[in-house]
Amino acid sequence: MAQIELDLAHAYKPNPRSDEDYALLPLKMSFADGGAYALLGPSGCGKTTLLNIVSGLVKPSQGRVRFDGVDVTARTPQQRNIAQVFQFPVIYDTMTVAENLAFPLRNRGVPADRIAKRVGQVADMLELSGQLHQRAAGLAADAKQKISLGRGLVREDVSAVLFDEPLTVIDPHLKWQLRRKLKQIHQELKLTLIYVTHDQVEALTFAEQVVVMTRGRAVQIGNASELFDRPQHTFVGHFIGSPGMNFLPAEANDEGLRVAGFRVAAAAPGLRGPLTLGVRPEYVTLAPAEADGAVRATVTKAQDIGTYWLVTAQIGDDAASVIRARLSSHGPVPKAGEAVWLRIVGPRTCFYGADQTLVEGVAA
Amino acid sequence: MKPVNQKAWLLILPVIVCVAFSAILPLMTVVNYSVQDIISPERRVFVGTEWFKSVMRDDDLQGALLRQIGFSFSVLLVEIPLGIALALSMPAKGWKASAVLVLVAISLLIPWNVVGTIWQIYGRTDIGLLGAALARLGFAYSYTGNATHAWLTVLLMDVWHWTPLVALLCYAGLRAIPDAYYQAASIDGASKLAVFRYIQLPKLRGVLMIAVLLRFMDSFMIYTEPFVLTGGGPGNATTFLSQYLTQKAVGQFDLGPAAAFSLIYFLIILLLCFILYNWMQRVGTADKEPGHG
Amino acid sequence: MELKLERIEQRVGAEACLYPLDLTLVPQAVTVLLGATQAGKTTLMRVMAGLDAPSKGKVLADGVDVTGRSVRERNVAMVYQQFINYPSMTVADNIGSPLRLRREKDVAARVRELAAKLHIEPFLDRLPAELSGGQQQRVALARALAKNAPLMLLDEPLVNLDYKLREELREELSQLFAHGGSTVVYATTEPTEALLLGGYTAVLDAGELLQYGPTAEVFHRPASIRVARAFSDPPMNLVAAEASASGVTLPGGVALALALPAGGSSPLTVGIRAGALRVQPRAGDLTLAGKVELAEISGSDTFLHVETPIGELVAQLTGVHQFTLGEPVTLHLDPRQAYVFDAAGALLRAPVRE
Question: In chain C, positions 247-276, which contact chain A (CB-CB < 8 Å)?
Fold first, then answer.
């Protein structure tokens, strides 16, 4: 287990001139020993590059990687004692499950009885004990991923376990079990775990701290409630949450806050000028007519999503001012074509300036 | 089960006619000759299985068969590992890869009788590079006089000619292995030997199967190169099956026995390939993976 | 087009890929084929398209038997998960190819219209290899729409895309399908996707068609335990139970006050959706005191794994809640929200929706 510090940037070309030449813009990050982290972002944002720099498969074009204070930038993954689990299961076809798990230990010259004990422990943890003597090649995809993971865990001195979108090939209902398994392993072994994914549910359920990335930049680092309730950047608001945050153009002056042409509420001190109002569908609620902080909208679509209803509505006459609300199935649900009042200004509403970042210190 | 398209039959009718004319009818003729004694073009006597029996008892034939089997296995023993080793050392990307591929493939492009001629001159102790070098070093090298030297020269010639085929097949197979396997092995601390044994060799299984089958069939039928190089000599030291067959049929005009023998030859190859293929398939199916729906 | 599959069966060698099934697609609506991988969705789609002829049974398009006809003679458009486009043709040529095959006039204008609908107008002169995954799939979709076929088949088209991109494209697809006039068949493994697309859902499991109906219906009234398992995300809590005089008895002696319809005899299975379990009590609730095993936060919801007297349950709570491991917690359930399945797995009782 190790504490990992990063102070680096990675460019495609030797002499980067603009932001586009960078795969990873200059960043400074540290992963605490024993913490579970996720790197979350759309494809092409640089998260896999960052993971490969941490593991040693890629050398950054500038900067340093430190493990427990020691500069390891020049070291290979083997030397850094990293374990990595890839997108598709990587197993040795000719070996049994037990031999697969024992492989890293055999290569390090660990005595046979200790190998057997360790393999037994890890197999127990991953619920593979019944299949130890089966040929690894004949198993299903989720069992193979568990073997890949097991090979990383079997080494007692592993400094960190890195995951590169490991649940991509797994069926949805098996994903549940594997996610739980990963969380339990983290709690038991207290290893440093770094998980790359483009799926926000995976990232938020797995990690204590999530690094949200886009286009080579780490936009926000925080835990699930911070990212959900106070996104620092409109991208975070959009990317996290299903569906993402509603963004509406707003204008605040001494007379009050106007959204999509309606005066909605009194403008809080500190809020002036053109802004973007961000409110999550989970916090948009039905309100009585003319209520403070609410707008009038016409429902265009109401979908039953089983555990909740997703209501899409249009504010005023502007077809571009669309707002979505997640309403509980237990309460009243409007139908398409109905006119409703929706509260959009509340304690969890965020305001963003022209540079897409959060306007701080505002309580609505 | 795909829906049937009747028009396809009309399109391949010309091909069927050509194949019938050039392959099936001659084959039938061979079967015909194998059960007859052709004393002269007009006089033919039906002799049943007599030719088959006499061919099986023929000492010369058994000798040729043994030499052939020895040759084919020696060829496989040398060419397969050498081809794999060559493929492993070829660069994977860039202009160097293209350059090396071209260089490696050159010997495959040479007409086979020219290959024989090249080695004929190459092995001469007076003007050939190999022969002269060996003579200078003190070896009494003579592929025309010494049976062992002739064998080794024919073997060397075949290796020089055909190893690139094995190498190219293995090279293609190696390129199909995703990078993640190498990364995982490096992370697991595997040595280069372990990587070869546990990742590369298993993944090359399909390709090696093709390589072994091709090289076996071709070497079992080899004719042009040894014929040009040694003429089958010295004596009959390098007379392999196909040359023996041709000598019998064309040289001595013993069409009956030759026809009988060529049928046996055909069946031997078929049987050995069948066994080899099934064995390799069975070793492969033990690792069959469930697919994605 | 009204597509009807009669007693369709598909065998490969000795194995059955599809067991005998009857399916009549609702014309001009979206039908979702929902099932795990290898459930038979792709096999069924290939039979619908005409790429494979079924071992037994008939395929009827608008009443006409098309079972033996090759796919080229049927008017079908298909989109795959692997972003399939003609690699050597530009985006504009790709989209226009079905139009040119039909020798239509004004191909360029139609191509521009479709490209605008799918937001790929700036890329018309590029090759597919130069585009990102999402853009390539949009080109494939545009080509399928250009064909304007009465039957459009999509085999997990969004599965190779980012989560967010998937959401965006799914929205757009819903709108495109609503305005088009084709019968659409969409295969997916994710229950949430089925719910978001709406329309009708056919649930497949191990080659069998389990249920077909309006999506919300199938979700709220699964005909059997297998359907409930296939169509739940998070998975439904299933508990073995016994029928008793007062209703249903759960393990641990916990009684569930429910009236069972006739035919309800032991052993039974009780299904509880994760969203039906609450931490806030309401009158008439069944209370289950338990211990927290694991808390998973997924942004808008918290999934709580609790060890209770009736077994281990997963509860879905709205909002972010912090729980510590081993903390005692009480879950509340309105007994009327429980599903009851009989010994054979068929649905006996489903919650009534207001």
Answer: 273-275
CA A75/CA A60 separation, integer angstroms: 12
Tokens of B180: 């993640």
Give the pLDDT confidence score for residue A57 in this predicted structure: 85
Domains and CATH numbers, chain C: 3-229 (3.40.50.300), 234-349 (2.40.50.140)
In-domain check, residue B76: yes
**Which residue segment(s) compose the domain that A14 sits in?**
4-235
CATH number of the domain enclosing A56: 3.40.50.300
Where a domain ends, among A218, A235, A252? A235
Mean pLDDT of chain C: 86
Amino acid at A246: N
Query: Which of A90, A141, A151 is nearest residue B180 as measured by Cβ atoms?
Result: A90
Residue B193 lies in a domain: no
| Window from A169-178, C138-147, C205-214 with minimum mean pLDDT | A169-178
Q: Which residue in A84, A87, A94 is closest to B202 by CB distance?
A: A94
pLDDT tens digits for A226-266? 888 889 999 999 988 888 899 988 888 888 888 877 787 77
Q: Coil, strand or helix: which one is B23?
A: helix
Q: What is the pLDDT of residues C288-338, one digit of tens each?
A: 888 888 888 776 788 888 988 888 889 988 877 778 778 888 888 888 888
Comparing CB atoms, the residue among A173, A205, A242 nearest residue C297 is A205
Q: Which of A68, A46, A358, A34 is nearest to A207 (CA)?
A: A34
Interval A316-346: pLDDT, tens? 777 778 889 988 877 788 888 888 888 888 8
- Angle formed at CA A319 by CA A314 and CA A325, multiple of 5 degrees: 25
Would A357 be classed as within a structural domain?
Answer: no
Tokens at A245, concatenated: 């945050």
ipTM: 0.80
Query: What is d(CA B290, CA B278) in angstroms, rounded to the nearest whole number?
Result: 21
Q: Phi and psi of C321, rounded to 5°? A: -125, 135
Here the tokens at position A27 are 């960043």
- How many domains is chain B partitioned into structurally? 1
pLDDT at B4 (0 to 100): 59
Task: Give per-residue pLDDT as tens, A121-135.
Answer: 888 888 888 888 888
On the 0-12 / 13-18 / 19+ scale of CB atoms within 10 A, B153 is buried
Distance from CA of A228 to the nearest CA of B (A): 34
- The answer to whether residues A216 and A18 touch, using CB atoms and an 8 Å cutoff, is no
φ/ψ of residue C54, rounded to 5: -70, 150
Mean pLDDT of A92-103: 90
pLDDT at B292 (0 to 100): 36
Per DSSP, helices labelled H in chain A are 47-55, 77-80, 97-107, 112-125, 141-153, 172-189, 200-206, 224-229, 234-239
Which chain B residues are closer than 8 Å to C41 by Cβ? 293
The closest alpha carbon to B230, from B83, B74, B67, belongs to B67
Would you say A156 and A104 are in contact if contact means Cβ atoms under 8 Å apart?
A: no
**C303 in contact with A, Cβ within 8 Å:** yes
CA pair distance A22, A34, nearest whole angstrom: 30
| Inter-residue contact C117 to C177 (CB < 8 Å) | no
The rounded radius of gyration (Å) of the Cα atoms in chain A is 25
All partners of chain A with 3 or more CB pairs under 8 angstroms: B, C
Phi, psi of A38 (to 5 degrees): -130, 140
Contact between A103 and B196 (Cβ < 8 Å) = no
Q: How far is A172 from chain C (nearest CA, A)?
A: 7
Token pair belonging to B182? 């190498």
Q: DSSP string of A191-202?
A: --EEEEES-HHH
Cβ contact C53–B3 (<8 Å): yes
**Using 50, 70 and 90 to split pLDDT, how confident is the model at B3?**
low
User: Residue B173: its pLDDT value, please?
Assistant: 93
